[in-house]
Amino acid sequence: MEERDTTKRETTVRKEQVISMYQRLEEFLESKDFEDDFKKLLEISNPNYMKLLEKRKIDIERSDHGIVIAGETSAGKSTLINKILEKRIFKGRNSESTSTVCKIRNSERVQITVEHLSGQMEVIDLTDKCDGNTEEGLRMLRSKLKDLTDMTLSQESKQYKSVDIGLPIPFLKGDTLLVDTPGIGGAGEVSHKLMDYLPNALSFVFVINVASAGGMQRDRLPEILKSLISLKIDDEMPCFDPRDVIFITNKWDTIPKEESDSEEEDEETKTWNNIRTEIKARWPAVKEEYIYKLSLTEVSPKKNNKSVEQFKEFQKVLMINIEKAETARVTEHLRFLQELLRSVTTNLQARLQLEKKSEDEQISLTKDHQRDIDTLRQKCKEVGQNLRKRITVHITTTAETSYEYMSTSMGKVKILNPSGYSAIVDVCDSPEGCANEVRRRFGLYIDSYLKSDEVVHEFTLIQKDTEIFYKETNLKLNAMQNKWSEVLKDDKGTTSEEASALSALGIAAAVVLLPFGLPLVAFAFTVGILSLGFAPVRFVWDWFWGKDQKKRDAIDKEYENCRVTVRKTVRVQLETNAGTVLEKLIVKVTENELPRRIGALEELIKQLRTSRQKIIDKRNMLEILQGKIIEMEKSILKFQKELQ
Q1: What is the mean pLDDT of residues 257-283?
Q2: Where is the Dynamin N-terminal domain (predicted)?
């Protein structure tokens, strides 16, 4: 109890400190001393900066530090939470029934807070009726939660935005929450609740049912991963670190364990290798040790097996993420404050250094830099157009290549009878069954093709070229900026030039060098690769002779349907996945971030030229402003050290 109160107080104090820093900065930016020229510059480099400050201040006041548990319906999310809490507060569900987001937090009291879609809050206090440490108390809690969240019992539960569950859980420090979510692939309005909660999350645990279509819910999980990337690029999830995502592969007890003298891998090994490959393809930032293999039904304090060992390793990583969640939001807000202050400092230093330049030197430097600015601005347009054109050309070429391959006899044979799988006639019993199997194997081909090196390589090059252009342009802008700022030293001997460069490179890293790769999501088929079934490979031409003509006709007809649509299939998949994310990144770099920096530098040079004497005459006032900024920066640096 005492430790929890201490942690709560520390969290509250930290938030109050950051909020106080925001308020000080707001007062400074709204003061008369911060003149219109400064405001104009800051508006160019940081559009709507006052609204952004208010938005950030609201964000730091959030009490939720959510670690989201997500996965397809019946993957084992609720079971995982029960195992983590060592309390069975959720009933196991084998169908789509959970209607809302459930938040679990540490609380002295046992209570449930229901938030309606209308915004109305309803508190149900069970402290005097329910002891969370007894089976009877847990049974009462389970029953109440089922009434509130199971849409098969009541449609009213769909009107709840979230259900907040408070009970004594000491390891959930501060305001860290475990968040149980509706199953991926469920009803539209239910899935929207999950998607709407994503920006609030600091970390994720994805639970994958290996018995379902090879493990990955191919139509919804990739969509969530893509949404996370888009939100990160758009700065809507500034505190989320993609490297902290955990994947639990569950229900391995449903995969047959086969003893075989064959050199081929057994089904369990093949499934494990395929799922790891699939996860890495969809979420390249994942750490190998953050992919776990277990069966939650085999996890128990009384047992000692591989699933228990894996679960214990998972618990260690989860605790690390919980510790990080305590300070992640505060750390991110301090970084944001620091960067905004450095934008102001850079402009202020240029003014303070102006009198050291003669008018002739200033005129000469202005001409040189205006020429460079015009060149960089044009370069942004050209590079943006070129990068987008490369995306279009690559997608078109990739689609055409797939069509040409499917049009060859060898391509048809390999697609219909892939290596390691049964011949197609051995797994279909009717013309309809053969047509379905053709579509499944076509899906296997598309899935493999879209993840092949020949497809991924060009997208990767486009991403790298975008990053390189951003870094190189930033370095040029830093060098130009430093020509005006010259060298000012603080009390630690750090030059303003160094601080400016570090700040700019820090921004560049935050914008472009994202710690994950592109979500090159493969084609979404209902039946996955692993459901096709493995069998010894037979001579693939056998089926052309002596088989039922209707079967052959059905196979040929459906293959032709797939062939004539493959270009559109490939194009749509690449455009809506890799293409969309790359376009977003390119636009952010070449149309937003770099043009803003270029525009801010151009405006600074213009102000220095047109108001030279006025700026020089205000040196005393500028030094006072500098002193205020230095004090704010020192406060931030001190706070950052305390958090380390």
Answers
A1: 74
A2: 67-209
